[in-house]
Amino acid sequence: MPHPDLKIGKRGLVGEEPESGIILVIGPRAARDIKVEEEWVYAELQFGYTWEEVFLPWDGIFRFFDKSQQTVTQMRIYLGKPDLPPKKEETTSAETKEEVSDLGSGSSKRKDNVIQVDFGSKTKK
Q1: How many domains does the chain have?
Q2: Who is most buried in 7, 48, 69, 88, counting CB within 10 A?
Q3: Closest to 55 in 3D by CA, of 80, 83, 24, 29
C-alpha cells in the first residue's frame, strides 16, 4: 500500500497502484527539477508526454539504487501511523533484560525474546 502522502500530480495512482504501490524509474530525460528535503523528495517526472509534480515522502520509499547498481539502499516500510501506548512506569534495563534460567537444559532465555545477531564476527560461537 503506498504512503498516504505520496502525490503524483494530476495523474495520481492508476490501476493496481493504490493497492500494490508504484515503481518509479528516474532517468536523465524523464526527470527535471529534483529537490531533496528532510521529509520528502520533490521531482518533476514525465509520464508519457505529460510532466507531473511528484512528492515522495522518505517513509514511502522502500529501495533506491543508482544505474550501475553499486549503491543500493533499503528503506523502512511505512505501515501507518503508530499507535503509541499510554506511558507506563519506567522500568530499569535490568528488569527488561532479566534472564531466566531453564533448569532442564541449563541454558538461559531472555524474557524479551530478542535475538541478537553479530554479522561482523568471523568465528563461530
Answers
A1: 1
A2: 7
A3: 24
